[in-house]
Amino acid sequence: MSDIHNRINAFVKLGAFLNQFSSQSPTVDATIAGNEIFFDGFKHQLKLAEENNAWFTKNNLQFTLTTWGEALSSSNLKKWLSNYLIEDVHPKKVAIIMAGNIPLVGFHDFLSVLISGHEVVVKQSSNDKHLLPYLSKYLEYVAPFFKGKITFTDDKIQNFDAVIATGSDNTARYFEYYFGAKPNIIRKNRNSVAVLTGKESVTDLEALGEDIFRYYGLGCRSVSKLFVPKDYNFDAFFKAVYKYGDIIHENKYANNYDYNKAVYLMSLFNILENGFLMLKEDEGYASPIATVFYEEYTTVEAIKEKLTNDADKIQCTVANGLVDGEVAFGKTQQPKLWDYADGVDTLDFLLKL
Questions:
Q1: Sheet containing strand 278-281, strands side by side
Q2: Cα(141)–Cα(145) distance, rounded to whole angstroms?
Q3: 168 pLDDT exceeds 70?
């Protein structure tokens, strides 16, 4: 495959193409290559994606495309790749099995395989099947050297050298059984948490709402649990997230809210709620839609120990000056290219094949 500089330039062009869709009304930029062929077609693919999966709303699709458009800048790509030696890669065929919980959720793996000089075989989730194949065609148009290096399949994956698979704890056992003999990255369930101290500003708590409600809480980087000091008063939290209240007018979310609330009430669970979000005291991490779990802690040392012990269940931790590697309020769904899922360096894995 071509050298690294050409591959970087190809993804920069893809980023520029995506940047056109960063508003509710996409606007054609005459300087973008291939618009006459791909612009209207991608608008149609976005419509299909929304029709195929009701969680993929216009707002969430726009957010995804904006995030990736910004990430695929020349400066970001070069900063990410600056710590790796990529030129001497012997191309291998890498299979990616993608989840479908949020739009383009497997794009970072796809990018990592191609930017490192390997070939990719993609098996998509039926929940997110419209966008990536079309973007791959755009990539092949602006960088013809990618032709023949990208394959999509609905069949059983065969003839591959390594695999990256993302799924649930249950599917991970299946993946390990079938792919354990090959070099692999197999990802399981993870959730994200926020640690509150009671000293957060209104701005912090409003931003935390973005971490909770973006993608309806379906992402592994979505905050599904709060750790709070003993006897924490949630009034300020509820007041701050009130701005997200219109979410209850969206049918799928509302149905989940009503169902889970009925289950909690029939089970005589104590919950706190504000009409569109429920808080339930629970030691678990994977909260249902429209619910956030919470757990009290007594000391900073205790919560740090808890986070360390449960590190394999946590994707990221939102906090303010509390723990190493913490994420700022409101930023969980805007990872950098070098923020790897599960803390596993995908690019390092690929370069050692």
A1: 271-273, 278-281, 291-297, 223-229, 191-195, 314-318
A2: 9
A3: yes
Counting beta carbons within 10 angstroms of the beta carbon of residue 117, is it exposed (0 to 12), middle (13 to 18) or buried (19 or more)?
A: buried
Quick one: average pLDDT of 281-298? 97
**Other CB atoms within 10 Å distance of the CB of residue 152:** 13
CATH code, domain with 293: 3.40.309.10
One domain for residues 14 and 105: yes
Three-class SS of residue 284?
Answer: coil
Residue that the structure tokens 């930029």 belong to: 29
Query: Minimal CA–CA distance to 150: which of 95, 104, 105?
Result: 95
**Mean pLDDT of all residues belonging to the chain:** 95
- Lookup: tokens for 309: 């012990």
Q: Residue 29's domain is classified under what CATH number? A: 3.40.605.10
Is the pLDDT score of 179 beyond 80? yes
How would residue 196 be classed by pLDDT, with cut points 50, 70 and 90?
very high
Is 196 exposed, middle or buried, given 0-12, 13-18 or 19+ CB atoms closer than 10 A?
Answer: buried
pLDDT of 11-63, one tens digit each? Answer: 999 999 999 999 888 999 999 999 999 999 999 999 999 999 999 999 999 99
Domain coverage including residue 287: 191-318
Q: Burial level of 130, CB count in 10 A (0-12/13-18/19+)? A: buried
